[in-house]
Every structure is written in C-alpha cells, then in structure tokens.
Amino acid sequence: MRGPQFMLGYWKEPRATASVLHDGWYWSGDVVCRDENNFFYVLDRSKEMIKYKGFPVAPAEVEAVLMEHPAVRDCGVVARPNLEAGEIPCAFVVLREGQTSDDAMKHSLCRFVADRLSYYKQPREVHFVQAVPRTRPERSCAES
C-alpha cells in the first residue's frame, strides 16, 4: 500500500520501519487480491504470529479460547500495528443470535480470555462483525 495516509515509520524503531517500508510502499503482511472493478479483498495473513512486545502470540490460540465463550459463534484474531508494543491482538467476533454487541459483552469476552490466557495474549480490541471471512471471495481476483 502507498499514499499520504500511511506512516513515515515507527518512532525510534528504524529496524521495524525497514521491515515494513520499502521504496515508499507499506508492506502490511496481508495477502490480498484485486478484482476487475479494482476492489481489494483480504484473503489471508502472510505471517501467523503476532509480536506483542517481543512475545509471540498465536492468533489460533486466542481464537480457540474466544470460541469457548457461549456467546461467540465465530471469531478471528489479527495483529494491529502499535507504536508501544509493535503489534497488538485484535479480535473480530460474530455473536450468537440473541446476544448484544455492546460494551458489557466486550468486557465479558475480555474477562473470559483474561482468566485463560497470559496478559500479552489477550486482545486489546474487540470488534463485533456480522461474519468472519474464511475463504477466498467467489469473485475472480486478478493478480495485482
């Protein structure tokens, strides 16, 4: 990706900056495709581990714990860049029918995970979504 909306680099972290910025392009680590209408679709992650302050966090481990919560129908955990931590775990959660996507539910999910996982593995953000994409979109994507 490239444009004025992207960062100039990580604060006082030249090695981290060099790992994601190349010739003016930001390399997110996401696998995407572009369709014939120039819409982009995120298909996969090129790296599985989230690095929180140097600690490895496996998204699948966090997802497995979230799936044990009775209100969760589906979920996905991804990394979000963070200046202080490098990356933070962020959860995207699909709730079961009849469950309310509010702050109380976010706190419930965070407490549930906190009881089961180390602090550094816990999601710092919880977003409620209607669906978590699991497979490549049915649209044909051209190579970009």
Summarize the model shown:
By secondary structure, the protein is an alpha+beta fold.
Task: Give me the secondary-structure topology.
Elements: H1 14-20, E1 21-22, E2 25-26, E3 30-35, E4 40-45, E5 50-52, E6 55-57, H2 59-68, E7 72-82, E8 86-95, H3 103-114, E9 125-128, E10 141-142
Parallel strand pairs: 8-9
Antiparallel strand pairs: 1-2, 3-4, 3-10, 5-6, 7-8
What does this structure look like?
- With about 140 residues, this protein is α+β, with helices and mostly antiparallel strands.
- It is about 20% helix and about 35% strand.
- The strands form 4 sheets. Strands 4-3-10 form a 3-stranded antiparallel sheet, with no helix packed on it.
- The protein is globular and about 50 Å long.
- The chain starts with 13 loop residues before the first helix and ends with a strand.
- The mean pLDDT is about 85.
Question: Architecture of the largest domain, CATH level 2?
Answer: 2-Layer Sandwich
Report the order of strands and helices.
HEEEEEEHEEHEE
Average pLDDT across residues? 86
Distance between the termini: 12 Å
Broad structural category = alpha+beta
By CATH, the topology of the largest domain is GMP Synthetase, Chain A, domain 3
Name the shape in a single word: globular
Q: How large a portion of the residues is in β-strands, by DSSP E?
A: 25-35%
